[in-house]
Each structure stands twice: as C-alpha cells, then as structure tokens.
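thread from #wetlab-drylab

HS: before we spend reagent money on co-crystallization trials with C2E, can we at least see a predicted complex? here's what I'd submit
DV: go for it
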Amino acid sequence: MDKARSDAYYIAFEKLVDSMTDHVSFSRDAVVSALKELCSILRIAKGVTEFYVSTAHEIAGDGEVLCDYDNGMGDTVVSKRRVVSKSGAVIKGTLYSSSKDKPLDDDEIRRADLVMRTVLSFVSRNRLSRAIVEMGYHDERGFRNHRAYVRFLEKLSAADELGGMVAAQFNLRRFNLINQDIGRHYGDIVMMNYYKLVDAAVSPSGGTVCRLGGDNFVTVFRKEHLSTVLEIFDGVPVSYDEAGTKHIYVSARSGLYEIPEDIIWEGEGTIMDKIIFASNAAKRSGESTIIFYDAKMINMRDKMMRVQSLFPEALRRGEFRAFYQPKVDISTGLIVGAEALCRWFHNGRLVPPNDFIPIFEQSTDICKLDMYMLEAVCRDIRRWLDSGRNAVRISVNFSRKNLVDIELTSHIIAILEKYSVPHDLIEVELTETTTDVEFRDLKRIVSSLQLAGICTSVDDFGMGYSSLNLIREIPWNVLKIDRCFLPAENDGDSSVTSLMYRYVVSMARAIGLECITEGVETMKQVDVLRDNNCMIAQGFFFDKPLPVEEFENRLDMMYYHIK
Ligand code: C2E
Ligand code: MG
Ligand code: MG
C-alpha cells in the first residue's frame, strides 16, 4: 500500500473510531460514512455484520443483519469472523471483494480485518447494552413490565402528551379456570395473545400495554381507542394453538382513568394510584366489571377510611347496640325468636348497618363487631332469664369473614358460657358462600356448632347464587328465605317466583329444615306464607328491629294479633 493510501486509511480509521466513541453527538451516519471510505480505500466491495441474541437464534436465522456497505460487486469472501459474547450473543462479520478486481494483498487483508474487528466490538457492545436495557423493561416471558409502563408515562408527560389519554389496569377474568380448562401451557399462550390484541389496538397510535405480574396488566392509550379497548375487555375469542383454530373467550375486569388535560405528573402514583383504586372497586363490585375513576370514589374512600378509623373508639365506648326484630309463628301469632341487628349510635345519630357493615367487612373489624354483638345479646338473654322473662332464641349475624377463624366455634361457646346462656337460645346466621374454600370452612363451622347444640341458619337464601349443595351438604337448622323470593302481589299462582317459593319451602320442610321468610310487610304476604306452609315470618308487618326495651315489652306481650 503506497503512502498516500496508507495516510488516507489512517485518517478514515481515526474518523471511524471518533464517530463510534462520540457519546455526546453520536451519529450512525457518521459511522457508516467512515466505513464506506475505509471500504473503498481497502477495495472492499461489501461488508456485512449480523447480530443474534443467542446461538439458538443464530441457528434459526432469527437475528439482525446490518449490511453497512455494498457496492453491488462483492462476490468473494475476504475475511470472516464470529464472536460469541459472555452472555451467549453471537456477532458475525463478513467482508467481500470483487472477483473482477485484483485480489487483496496481505497488508490490505490485515487492515480490513482490523476494521472488521473494531466494528464487531462496537456492534457487540452497542447491541448488548441495548439488549440489557430491553431486558430491564421486559419480564421473563417477554411481556413489557411495570418499569416499561412508568418509563412510557414519564415520556408522555415530558412531551406534554399525557393529558387526554386513558390509563387502565385490567385483570383477566376467571383466568385460573382457563388454566384449568386448557392447561397452563395453553393458558400462557392465551395470555400472550390477549396482550397482543390490546397491544395491536393501542400501540400504533402511541399507547402501550404492560404486565404487572400474574394476570394483571396496565395500559395507556388515546381516548379515541376507548371503545375498541372496552370491547376487548368485554370479551373476545382468543386463539391458543399454533394454527389459530382453537379459541377461548377471554374478558377482563378493569379500572380506568381518563387523564385530565391539566394533569401534573408527580411520579407514577399520579396514574397508578387511580387505576389501582378503580380496578379494586371493579374487583369488589359484583356486576360491574369496568369502573372509571372519579372524584366521587375518593369521597367514598375518605368516608371508608373515616368510618374505619372510628371503629376502635366506637367499640370501646359501646356505641354499637343490638336491636331486635321479632320472628313470629303466623299460625298462632306467638313470638318464637328474634334477630339481633346492629345499630351504631354516633354523635347523637343512628347509623344504619348498610353504612358501616360493608366497610367493616373490608377488614377483620367485622369479626370483632360480630363477637361484640353476640356478647351484647348474651348479656340481654341473661338479664331476661334472671328476671324470669320469657326468653326466646336470638339469632346473631356472623360475617363470612369469620370463616377463616379455626377457633370460631370455641370463641362463640366461650361467650355463651361467660353468661351461662343455654346453647339452644342462640342461633348463628351465616350467608351463602361463593368459593370452594369458603364452602369447606362453612361446612366445618356449621357442623361444629351443631355438635355444640347451637342452631345455625342460612341467611338471605335466594339472594346470591344459591346452590342446592349448600343445603344438601351442610347440616343447617334453619333456612331464611330472602324477601326477593317472596312472590309479589301481582305474581299469579303459576308465576315462576310463586312456583319457586313453593318448592323451596316444601323442599326445606321435607329435609327437616325450619323455614322462615324475611321481609314480610303486608297481610297479603302473611297469607302467601300460610298458603305455602312457611309458618314463621319476620318483617315490618310485625315490627321493625326494636331497641331492647321495646322488644322486652313485646316479649312480655308474647303474641301478635293476626286477623
Ligand atoms: P339481614 O341479616 O338480612 O337482616 C335483615 C334486614 O332486613 C335488616 O336490615 C332488617 O331491618 C331488614 N328488614 C326486616 N324486615 C323487613 C321488611 O319487612 N322490609 C324490608 N324492606 N326490610 C326488612 P338492617 O337491620 O338494615 O341490616 C342489614 C344487614 O346488615 C343485615 O341483613 C345483615 O346482613 C347486616 N347486619 C346487621 N347487623 C349485623 C351484625 O351484627 N353483624 C353482621 N355481620 N352483619 C349485620
Ligand atoms: Mg340476618
Ligand atoms: Mg337476611
């Protein structure tokens, strides 16, 4: 190589190194231009570099081919190199000359090889650091992760594009059942394909979807795609075999937040807190599966937190009282029992149970309240017995939250013993269950109460998803039929409600369950009960839940006069 070419080579090589190491204003074009110059000086017709994440990717031909220079004449391989990095990535380089040109001499080949080694080390470092960055934003199964979501939101905020977007957290509905149905392997494919459906709907116009873990995802997208995304959440068939012929229906529960134009980004909580709050509300809610975050929810949350924080002090100060609603034998008018219902006297106001029971049910506070109520009832019964009053069986509501307490029965017995209350004067009301685990706990608890001679009743039967297994497999004493089962005045004898009511009562009686109907408000309804052989009633027709003194008057009276 003559001196002029050699000098030109050194100058071009320096340009290449400078352009590769210019971290401040790195330009791919500058690198490519220096390479072109070097190739022409060294009579290289074509230079190819390839990058594969792993050797498996290399075998499968699944990588990136960066053809940095090609003058269309390259047909003879001059030099070939293959480097495997510590992390298993493969970087390959191949240089070609033209058979129409004079063959390269050793000096040219040596210099060309040096250029290639420099390029390969640059590409490998560059690609690997990108791969590492990529890995940081993806989870082990290739889903974009939480970090990717936060970075995406940050970028939107920096570009002033966050306002007017919609953010959402969503959870695949009954995904454990999907896994059970088709197996975990196909379940994974379903999850990926559902993610891809959302991705295809939101990504092209500047949105994204990421996985938080399990079957929980987050997304953010432009408002104009809301209806498309909601359709996907509502339910779509998702394929799970390679051929795309087998499908399963997948839907999602979601909490959404329409980001206001004047949003101020104060870290990820600005968005995450709201969508998690709304999606928790969607999870709790029985029917609605799509909930939009709004300021009212915050008021609700504030109210919930206020009520929760008042609980310990209210309990200590004895603000909760037992009210009693009589249960009446409609054939005789005799008071045969009563249900204890909680009332909260707070700041001179009477708070109804629907305003606090659901809130206490969010934590184990409800269990403390139930035990407190049982104790208040036992204290009242003890007083009635001591004063020679006619005591009747009192039922006490126990939230399903108590079911996890393995010692529940012994805790109940301990309170009865403390006031020497005969076990047959207490009835425990429990509602239907929704899960298998709860069902097992319910069965265990009802059976042990039974052994202890304490009555049990299924409360609100017919209101949830009542299952006949519930009454077949669990040894209850009483079936409390919810008022929604009670035929309305305009229901004819052969209406579905009338027929169901009749059969539920006769079935309960046939298997030896006591049967009581709740929410009896009119004489006509008393007649319906009588016609259907349900002889015990509870409801406003007789009395509302009464303060203990008034209930004691009813006990003394013993009877209601029914026409
Ligand atoms: P529940 O156990 O089904 O109690 C019956 C509810 O129906 C009571 O509402 C009662 O006042 C109401 N009711 C009775 N007769 C009639 C009627 O003729 N018409 C109508 N429309 N309603 C009638 P309340 O007292 O507001 O209690 C609501 C719910 O709160 C109870 O439903 C029960 O689930 C819960 N609850 C009340 N006290 C306690 C408690 O100490 N512990 C637990 N865990 N839950 C309680
Ligand atoms: Mg009840
Ligand atoms: Mg009830």
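DV: The two ends are 124 Å apart (CA to CA).
HS: ok that's useful, forwarding to the group
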